[in-house]
Specification:
Elements (H helix, E strand, L loop, with lengths): L10 H10 L9 H30 L7 H4 L2 E3 L2 E3 L2 H25 L3 H32 L13 H32 L9 H25 L2
Antiparallel strand pairs: 1-2
Helix pairs in contact: 2-6, 2-7, 4-5, 4-7, 5-6, 6-7
Length: 223
């Protein structure tokens, strides 16, 4: 047996000291690690929702409303399927690109560009939420769809739709607020001495929200 011994005299005080000193494992800051843990747990929640949707869709005996018709818009007298959803998807994908550019400029120390791109990302996110509010209003007011009933077919449609898109919309709204707070702090130079890991962490959250929407778009709107 080795003569080397492990120092366990620090006890809980040592744990507190390590945590408060922002110790890193494998070069990973605590903030980024905590964000990854949150995103993994959130992935399970969204997965359960989408699996439940597929189960309801495949087992219901009632007719499932055709999404291309339910989510269509009338433009100049023309019936355009999924136009609003396509625009919403384009906005979120574009916002992922602007967020990635914000992270790049942050690590280059360009506060002005970082602030501008984060604000632009927040504006795109807010536009998405506004369009989702319009979509909900159209379904509730014009189509009469409720979480507990659906005059167009299977009753489960309304419950699943409002649950999944509402939960995702809450994430986007929280992300917009998160972006605005961090962007304003970047503008004030709050992270000059601390480093810009927080911008990358914000980007992780935003990319996750965008990726989840791609799955919602594919499973719910295109299927």
């Amino acid at each position: 047996m080795s003569d080397a011994t492990i120092d366990t005299t620090k006890g809980i005080e040592g744990v507190v000291e390590d945590w408060s000193a922002d110790k890193q494992t494998f070069g990973l800051p605590w903030g980024k690690l905590m964000m990854w843990i949150f995103l993994v747990s959130d992935t399970f929640i969204f997965s359960v929702f989408l699996i439940s949707y597929m189960n309801a869709r495949m087992t219901t005996t009632a007719e499932w409303p055709p999404t291309s018709e339910v989510f269509a818009l009338e433009i100049a007298g023309q019936h355009v399927p999924l136009l609003l959803i396509a625009i919403m998807t384009f906005i979120l994908i574009t916002s992922s690109g602007t967020m990635a550019m914000a992270v790049k400029f942050a690590y280059e120390g360009n506060r002005k560009r970082t602030f501008q791109l984060m604000m632009f990302t927040a504006i795109l996110g807010a536009s998405f939420v506004a369009m989702q509010a319009f979509e909900w209003t159209k379904l509730i007011v014009d189509e009469g769809i409720r979480p507990w009933e659906n005059p167009l077919g299977a009753a489960q449609f309304g419950a699943i739709f409002f649950l999944i898109t509402g939960f995702h919309g809450m994430h986007v709204t929280a992300g917009v607020i998160y972006l605005l707070v961090i962007a304003l702090r970047v503008r004030r130079g709050h992270y000059e001495n601390k480093g810009y890991h927080i911008v990358e962490i914000t980007g992780l959250y935003w990319h996750f929200v965008d990726l989840v929407w791609v799955f919602i778009f594919a499973f719910f709107y295109l299927w």
